[in-house]
Amino acid sequence: MISRIDLRGDALPEGPALRDLLPRxxxxxxxxxxxxxxxxxxxxxxxxxxxIDYAEKFDGVRLxxxxxxxxxxxxxLEQLDRSVRAALEExxxxxxxxxxxxxxxxxxxxxxxxxxxxxxxxxxxxxxxxAPGGRSVYPSSVIMNVVPAQEAGVGSIAxxxxxxxxxxxxxxxxxxxxxxxxxxxxxxxxGGATAVAMFAYGTESCPPANMVTGPGNIxxxxxxxxFAGRIGIDAEAGPTxxxxxxxxxxxxxxxxxxxxxxxxxxxxxxxVLVTDSPTLADAVAKELEPQxxxxxxxxxxxxxxxxGRQSAIVLVDGVEEGLRxxxxxxxxxxxxxxxxxxxxADRVTNAGAVFVGPWAPVSLGDYxxxxxxxxxxxxxxxxxxxxxxxxxxRGIHIVDYTRDALAEVAHHxxxxxxxxxxxxxxxxxxxxxxxxxPGK
Length: 440
Known about the structure:
Layout: E1 4-6, H1 15-19, H2 29-46, H3 48-59, H4 70-78, H5 82-100, E2 107-112, E3 115-123, E4 126-130, H6 139-152, E5 156-161, H7 173-182, E6 187-189, H8 192-201, E7 211-213, H9 218-226, E8 232-233, E9 241-246, H10 252-263, E10 270-275, H11 278-293, H12 298-307, E11 312-315, H13 319-329, E12 331-337, H14 341-346, E13 351-356, H15 362-367, E14 393-401, H16 403-419, H17 423-430
Parallel strand pairs: 1-11, 4-5, 4-7, 5-6, 7-8, 9-10, 9-12, 10-11, 12-13
Antiparallel strand pairs: 2-3, 3-14
Helix pairs in contact: 2-3, 2-8, 2-9, 4-7, 5-6, 5-7, 6-7, 8-9, 10-11, 10-12, 16-17
């Protein structure tokens, strides 16, 4: 069901050479880009009419309007199962606790007497958030996008999720209920690349946004790339990933269940176990079979995900080598299930989120740890972070110098301007001192 990669015996290569040995899904955003281009331009030129036509084509429903009535949000919340509501409310509460602590404060640095630089943090004016609605419904993604935007102080928040023919052209009612719980009443029944285009260009119903965030399929990722530069984006999210670094202290039942938990997202989902224990590897491989047989989404998601080239059990000589492997891999989700999990976790440098020990499964982070589950995929954790309050803030430097403070450094400014063959830069300083620069 799952392949093996044996990296024992020989010295592990460095950098890209090691990454090339590790499993990864094929996810060609460049190829998808050409397919979403005409969709995005149709939204640009035809606005809501294009959104309605594409909802009929892709979602099988003809809409009268893409904007979801506020009453539909209220109704969805009133009809929501009480236990689901309680779980969503607790997820929101914990996410707020964590994300509120991420707020940045204005800081002024006195560089010299009379010369200071202040960095103030300003939220983006308007964001468009995306909640997928394909194979599964993700109210948790609504929480993970909305809470950090709200805690950052974003003034205008809109959310899009695909129209559902089973619900009269509205997004899934649990998505709508989550929006109602969070106080977001600007919601659109728009999915995929068309949602990104709607937020980027704006339409008759939806004003343009400054930024778009949220997970999605390859078409969403391609649309984000198409609009890079016009709008801010969080990331080009690819298929979800879990990597588990484990030794012989790990419980194979836990490890197998955690691999399956990510495999059920998508047939391209990656499930990777890195271990120095052949005994654990054998036990996990054996445990996968009955656990897979006992769950849902077997043939359409879990089996192809586990059997795909993106998933594997990777054998290494020791935990030290395992650390090198997982740091090279840069997983979206990384579990550490070793005898000294906290010490090992402290040495992780590349991961979207790290889950320490046997009682912190990725599922906890997906819903109720308080952390954010919108995380970098495809190895991007080597240079990028997950969604946070910081994602929605812009740092602005305010430079405040007196005459004396400028005079003290003026000759250095002029010298560097001349060294770069930019004499007008220096002249802008000289003009303030009657063309005779102090210190020269």
